[in-house]
Structure formats: structure tokens, C-alpha cells
Amino acid sequence: MITYDRPAKLTALQAISEAQKIAFSPIAFHAGLALLRLGVLRAVGDAGERGAEAAELGERVGLSEYGVRVLLDMGLSMGLVWARGERYVLDKVGHFLLNDKMTQINMNFVADICYEAMGRLQESIVRQAPRGLERFGSWRTLYPGLTQLPEPARTSWFSFDQFYSSNAFNSALNIVFADRPRHIFDIGGNTGSWALACAEHDDAVRITIIDLPEQARAARERLRGSAHESRIDVHATDLLDPSRTLPSGADTIWMSQFLDCFSASQILDVLGFVGEAMGPGTSLFVLELLWDRQQHEAAAYSLNATSLYFTCVANGVSRMYGSEELLRLIREAGLHVHAQYDNLGLGHTLLHCVKPR
Question: Does residue 199 sit in the same domain as residue 328?
Fold first, then answer.
């Protein structure tokens, strides 16, 4: 569990060194991105332990020796490569930047969704509105515009969103289906990944995807022609709209990476509304990435950075929550956490909630 409850144990030299990394971090990010997207880091990796000189690498990727050298010299400082004389050799950090799927997805998400928008972070904080969203469209929040995002932003967003949740699905399926649910509401079901996973897991279960009209259309399109289409319904509604509606008949309600899309007061409102639709035997499963429930500090760092994406791009009011705050909101909404499961997939927590008897 991550706490940050005491000062970092750094010498003054270490601390000022870390401060310089923060000061130059935008340049470091773009250097890493350029090394990847221009093919330079791949060419270094292909050169193996012998490495390659800047001129040779430039010829391979169609760049000047100067361009390759300034990028790779920054790569030396970033730990992406190391120098064997005049030759550059791939180092461990560079290996993961080049080959690790999670890192690639995070890098593309930051580059294509967040980077330019983050220039308006201060304004977003002051105005309590996602001012960085304006580079994509005139929506009040990002969610109605997800299917209209230009490429490569659209692919980068959906890859980021689905990569983390899908890694937790296998473990979550076994927990959710332990009591053999017959009808599941998939609230915030997006394009239907969880619904399809449920239908494939149990050939008798029915699923109803509940999401914004734009996402509901995307889900219907994805499900068209699927072998499970007859068992998956789609219900369009905005859970922040006073005229919102829910269908009836579910014994299980599922929310995956859904509550982090709302402010604390909105979560109370949504959970209160959903709680009214729950019977005494209904189970609510909440799957979230909680920054303080991570096993590694790098994961907490990534989640706290993702909170600023919500601030500046997604909606201006939500975040990746810590466990204490989310558990408190669930209690205040009148629900009881029956069971908690940590470390599913890449760090998810699954909360099994019920109405107190």
C-alpha cells in the first residue's frame, strides 16, 4: 500500500537532481517520443550489444547524424542508451520504452491526448473546467465526443482505457460469477468489452449495457453480428441527468473504471440513484484503480498523473481516487462493502457492495 506519509530520504544533491529532471521533463518526454516514432531507438536495439554510431543510425532511419546524436545524447541522460565509445547501445529503460506494451500505451495516451492539453492545466484548476478539451471539440466533457476524436487520439484513448480494465477481467469474472448472476447491468459499459466477456463466460447470463447515447450507439455497432448479440441489450441514459432511467430486473450491477469519471458529489448522487434500484439480494461490483492500493510507487505515480488528465481534458472535476475516499463515499451513499479484492490484473481493486439489511 502506498502512503507518502513521511519525507523522501534524499540527500540535498539527490533532491536538487530530481528537481532538474522535473524542470526538463517536457523535453525528456518529447526526446523519448521522437526516438521511438522516428525509429532511432529501434535501430539502436537492432544493433545489439555491439551498438551503432550516430552516422550509421542516421543512414538506417533517414535522419542527419546531428539529429540522431542530439536525441541519443539526451537518451544517455535518460537511461535509454549507454555509450560504448562512439557507439550507442540500448539500455534497460530504453528496452522497456521500446518493447513494453503498457509503457507504449501510456506514452501514446500522453502524447496524443494529454500533452498539448496540459498547457492549460493551471486554467483548468482555476476555472474547475477541462480547458484542455477545447483542442478536440466543444463538448462540456470528453465522454460524448469519444467516438468523434481524430486519429491517432481516438485509438490512443481507447487503448489506454481498455488495456487496464481488460487485464483485470479474468480474475473479476470468477468473483462476479461465484453466485451465478442471471442479469447484469454493465453501467458505463463503453464499447461492450465486459459484456462480451460475461456472455462468453456464461451462456445463460443476460447483460444490459448502460451508457451515454453516443457510447450506446458504439456498443450496438460493435455487438452487431456477434454470437452473443441476442443476450446483450443496450440502454442509453446519462446518469447525471435528472430524467435518467434504469431498466429493471438485474441481480448484479457492474461498474468498471466508471466512478473515477465523476466528482465526489456526483459519485454520491450516482450511487444513491443506483442504490434505489438495488434489491436486498442485488450485488454491486465496483472495479477501480486506487492509487494507494498499488504495490509499486510507479503505479501510484501513474495514477496520480492520470488524475490531472481528468482535470484538464476529461471533465475538470474527477480523479483517480484513494481507497479511503471512495470507501467513505460508498458508505455515505448507504451501501455496505461486503468484500474487497486487491491486485487484480495490473492493480485494480474490486469492491463488492450490497444494501445493508
Answer: yes
How buried is residue 33: exposed, middle or buried, by Cβ count under 10 Å (0-12/13-18/19+)? middle
pLDDT digits (tens, 9 = 90+) for 132-182: 999 999 999 999 999 899 999 999 999 999 899 888 999 999 999 999 999
216 and 292, same domain (yes or no): yes
Distance from C-alpha of 42 to C-alpha of 85, rounded to nearest angstrom: 20
Question: What is this structure's pTM?
Answer: 0.92
CATH code for position 249: 3.40.50.150
The single-letter DSSP state of residue 150 is P
DSSP code per residue over 310-347: IIIII-SS-----HHHHHHHHHHTT-EEEEEEEEETTT
Residue at which a domain ends, from 99, 127, 156: 99
Residue 307 lies in a domain: yes
SS3 286: strand
Specify whether the CB–CB gap between 305 and 29 falls below 8 A.
no
What's the pLDDT tens digit per position in 298-357?
999 999 999 999 999 999 999 999 999 999 999 999 999 999 999 999 999 999 999 997
